[in-house]
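README: folding subset

This subset contains proteins for which both the sequence and a predicted structure token string are available. Records are stored as plain text. Below is the entry for Fibronectin type-III domain-containing protein (252 residues), shown exactly as it appears on disk.
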Amino acid sequence: MMKNAGIVRWLLSVAVVFLLAACSDSGGVASTPTPPTQVGLLTVTPADAQLNVSWNAVAGATGYEVYYSTTSDSSTATRFTGDSNTADTTCTITGLTNGTAYYVWARAVNSAGGSSLTAAAAPATPQPPLATPALTTVTPGDGQVTLTWSAVTGATSYEVYYHTASDALAATMFTGDSNTSDTTCTVTGLQNNTAYYFWIKAKSSGNSSGLSTVSAPATPTPPDVPLPQHGTVQPSAGDRHRRHEPLRCRYR
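--- output ---
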């Protein structure tokens, strides 16, 4: 019995030593978590009946909360609860009304509480997708193809895509035209005698259309080489003189 009591006392002494060492390492006072700092650089991009929101990560935050309202008064804001991944630094607020401006706030949270709300982001207005443009002409040339298409209401620019097969997923966007707001484009740098397919997409701030219906194949061709001109042989001056010289007879 005495032997067991000695073992117990030894175990207790070891535990006390470890406890004192832990207190010494932490300054003798357990650390208390503090709320995270305010979220910064809130970015809001409108889309169809939704807003895509992103922000910078905050040290010490274990999650984030996003709020929105149709006024700039944060006291009227509603917390968006439709995003299950609250630890991410992006959020898509869905179920909004197209054509209505929304203000957005965010804050970081942890076990100690939450930061203050960000300043309201500039109002963003969800919009329905733009109408799809329609290609009207596709004209091949020497190493190039010139396209024209119908203007789309609300579009501020257009993107042109091309490929040697009618597979839109494999198409390449043409970046050689600086005037992206025009409804015509000449796609250059193409291979002559190779068929190409084309698509157009309308764009605006935070919105876009689908790709147009694929064009009929267009094949750039080199210009026709003119045949050499075969000139007529002109008679020499001597020939002309002899031709008109009267025939002279000699008599003996």
